[in-house]
Amino acid sequence: MSTVDTTEQSSSAPRRGRKPAPATTVAMAPGAVVPAAPPAAQAGPEHVTEPVAYDAIVLAGFGGPEGQDDVLPFLRNVTAGRGIPDERLEEVAHHYRAFGGVSPINSHNRQLKAALETELAGRGIELPIYWGNRNWDPYLNDALREADAAGHRRLLAIPTSAYSSYSSCRQYREDLADALEDTGLGGVLEVDKVRQYFDHPGFVAPFVDGVAAGLATLREHGASTIEVLFATHSIPMGDAQRSGPAELGLGDGGAYAAQHRAVAEVVMEAIGEPETPWQLVYQSRSGPPSQPWLEPDVNDAIAELPAKGVDGVVIVPLGFLSDHMEVAWDLDTEAMETAAEHQIAAARVPTPGIHPKFVAGLVDLVVERLEGTPVAARPALTSLGPWYDVCRPGCCENARRGFRPAVAGLAP
């Protein structure tokens, strides 16, 4: 039985795992309407307010290459089922190759896992953490095998994404269903996930600190008119419109855009500068030109700033937990080059990473489910939260793939 080694690996370490195939089904307890759920969530409540005795945590990541030889196989995993030839993948591969073929994301997740273990131990919470990725070693199927081998049966997943959309929420739920079928552990393991935490104080606090510091730095260096750009990964408009439950009526950008805008407003209010100009911008689009994606692109937004008399820009990676490739390349490289080209002073705000408030906030989310915290006692800084524990029917559909088996939500 394979195990997951969560120690730091060299880029030459051999791969031991593989990405699971898409699941065809996921086990459901008799009378349940939520697959793979413990009894408290089986009936599909919006919020689970009964204590649940989890015995392990799964940190669910995206994954990234750790050497030049990993880059193309990793990108094939990311684009599996889409028929994209290697020549086109190489157009993206050069971002990774510029950094020695190593994405920072796995290193950051090792750090986050260690920080969470320290925080749990400090609170006397005896829950082991198993880390598994969607697209690269260690994979989620190996994480579930390791948890099973240790005798754990009830798992709580922490996806490394804070917002609602197909790729940032539902796909993680599908990944867990894929891993359950691949390992044959469907009907053996129960798997829940924490709520989306875009507006949890622990996630927002590092951005408040960062934006305040970024504004102060630019002003110290002489910038007189500053705009704040809150950046997140662009997604197809169709996916954005389907993010979150349709009945919420959150507009063309769905829950995905609404959640980001709400958090940006909270950040600007928290630093006492609600009148300082800001906008939500997008990055890292990868679809064909014929397919509409969320806009404006961060570089286009920067290029328009001089006409508004702006001489300083604070770039906030609001959609990201850590400094992975979309931050290192799209913001720290391309966006900074665009700012320099237009003679605009720029400061990039840190991602939450292992900020103590963020780490503590993630553990708070675990405690919510362990204790069955009432909804009124759950912290949320926007009117959109606290978000659902059990995803609603039809939430975050990927129209190109249809509704695939997923855990922690009501069908479809």
UniProtKB/TrEMBL annotation:
Where exactly are the transmembrane stretches of this chain? none
* Annotated Gene Ontology cellular component terms: cytoplasm
Cellular localization per UniProt: Cytoplasm
Which Pfam families does its entry note?
Answer: Ferrochelatase (PF00762)
Cite the record's Polar residues compositional bias ranges. 1-13
Q: What catalytic activity does the UniProt entry give for this protein?
A: Fe-coproporphyrin III + 2 H(+) = coproporphyrin III + Fe(2+)
Q: Which GO terms describe its molecular function?
A: ferrochelatase activity; metal ion binding
* Top-level enzyme category: lyase
Which HAMAP family does the record match to this protein?
Ferrochelatase (MF_00323)
What PANTHER family does its record include? Answer: FERROCHELATASE, FERROCHELATASE, MITOCHONDRIAL
- The name under which this protein is listed is Coproporphyrin III ferrochelatase
Species this protein is from: Occultella aeris
The coding gene here is: hemH
